[in-house]
Each structure stands twice: as structure tokens, then as C-alpha cells.
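Lab notebook: predicted structure, single chain.

Context: the supervisor wants predicted structures on file for every construct in the current expression panel, including those that have not yet been purified. This is the next one on the list. No modifications to the sequence; it matches the entry in the shared construct table.
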Amino acid sequence: MDFDDDPPRSFGRVTINDVARAAGVSVSTVSKVVNQRYDVAPATSKRVMSVVAELGYETSLVASSLRRQRTNVIGVLVAEFESFSTELLKGISTAAAQTGYELLAYSGRVAGESRTGWERRSLSRLAGTLIDGAIIVTPTMLMPTTSIPVVAIDPHTGPGGPSTIDSDNVGGARVATQHLIDLGHRRIAHIGGRSDLASAQLRESGYRESLAKAGIAFDPTLVRDGGYEAALTAEVARELLTRPDRPTAVFAANDRSALGVMKVAEELGLRVPEDLSVIGFDDIPEAASATPPLTTMAQPLHDLGAQALQMLVELLGGLEVPEHVQLPATLVVRASTGPAPRR
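Prediction complete. Output recorded below exactly as produced.
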């Protein structure tokens, strides 16, 4: 057929045979062109690549990796897609645009499976055949050795194993608690994350440090484990807010928990911030659109993702990178915090 004729319509995956027929060449010639071999005439190569673009033909990543020993694909492995990981993905995607690498976002935790170890299962499925390196978001365990270069964002265990990047959890928690103290609050509750996570432990440490610096006695009954989960946060928030000596302010270890506290407060008829001030940690998009908008410690999520991508590209290029990079968290004051109520 003539090259100017309409190419065959294909409603499934375009194959190398489709390209060969449309270009009027052999399958082996198409293979040589797409694999950038140099024993094909320039005019023929141009003709084949025009058909490749027109039909949308893509070679198999697995086959390419077996031939070349690399895929030029970076995996972004998450336990689940939620606001935190989605914002990191935006930063990773922006930074990847000029690197020549493509991204494969992969949710590795299967319903019913243990929450620990999902990243090892994900790496075993993808490493070497589909991805050259991986960014792992909040991995649950240390991985001192991996088959491909890895950068971990905010690992549950804290720095260790592969190169890691996170925010200043202790410093951010200090600033969050100090913000409430500066507003006159003295009964400040803390709803933490899972007690086995380094980020949760560090944020509680920062909370305690600010109380101690201000001369406020630590009250263990005002600290509860919300598990970074909505249902558990709602339960402990209700307990705290219905006690006779309820707190006048709550520092929640993440924004999802803080938003859950605000919902419980509304159900109990408490006004935010007139009766109760609430501050979170992360600055996910829902924080700014909440009613009232949530005061929070902003993690630089886009920057965390972008820097993790850059670290991984450098590792893939054989360069050395720091074992641990830490970025600051920044106070974003909105309408959910105000002066302590008079009693």
C-alpha cells in the first residue's frame, strides 16, 4: 500500500506487524529502527518512525529492558493514593519532565494484606524489568539493600537504609504548639499518629518540648493516638472534647486528623476557633478549603517529591547523594486557630 493511504484501523494494541504493513517494510526493519540500529537507510527510518507516531506504537517495556538492561522508567511506589502521596507525585512529575525518564505510579498495598512490607513486594514485582529505580513514599520497613537504586520519602522507621528525605517533624511540631501557646492556650491536646511511626514520635516530642519551654506541665491524658486514621481520630477527639476539663486547643499530627477533630467539634456544638482551636500538619489541599480553613504546618510536599526525584536520577547516574535530606516545615495561619476562650 502507498504510505499516503490511510493506515489500518486498530482497536487493540498496535503491533510491530501493523507498523511493518503500514510502512511497507519488514518486521526486522521496524525492529532495527525502533531500537536505534544504524544499518537502515535514513529515508526508510524516517518513513517507519512516521508510521510509529501515527499509529501510536510502543515497544514492550519488558522486552526493551531485557535488551538494554534498562527501561528509562522510574517507579513511584505508594501504599495508597491519597492527598499526601498525590501532592508528592505532582512534585515528582514536574521534576521528571526534563530528565528523560518516564514515571510509573504504583499502589502496592492490597486490601487485606499486612500494612507492613508492601514496598518489598512491590519492588520484587517491578525492579529490573519495568523500572530502573524507585521512589518509595512512607515505606514501612528498613531496606538496607535493594536490587535497584531507591530513595525513600518520610519512611516510617526514620532515616536508615536507602537515601531518605523528609520534613523537620520535631521543629514543625514545636512551632505548631508554640503558636497555640502564643494565643494563650494552656490546655493543649495532641492527637498523634501511629505510635510505631517515627514521624508521629517526633511530632509528639516537639509538642512536649514546647510545653516544657513554656512551663506548662505535661498532661498524659491530653495525648491520644489517632493512628492517622479518620475513625480512630473521631473516637479519641470525642473523648477529649466531652470531658469536663476539655482542652481549648488540639494539635493533630496530620491534617486529616485535624479535619476530623473539627468535624467532631461541629457535631458537639463547639465553635472553631471561638471554643476550640485546631492545628494540623502537612497542608494538604483540603486544609485550605475546610470550614473554617485549617491552620497547619506546611510540609513542602512538591519540593520533597522534586528533590527525591533529583536524588534518584543522580543515583542512577552513578553519583553519590546524601544519606538523609531534611526540609523545613512552615506555619500557615488560617482561621481554625484563635485566642484561648475565657472560662
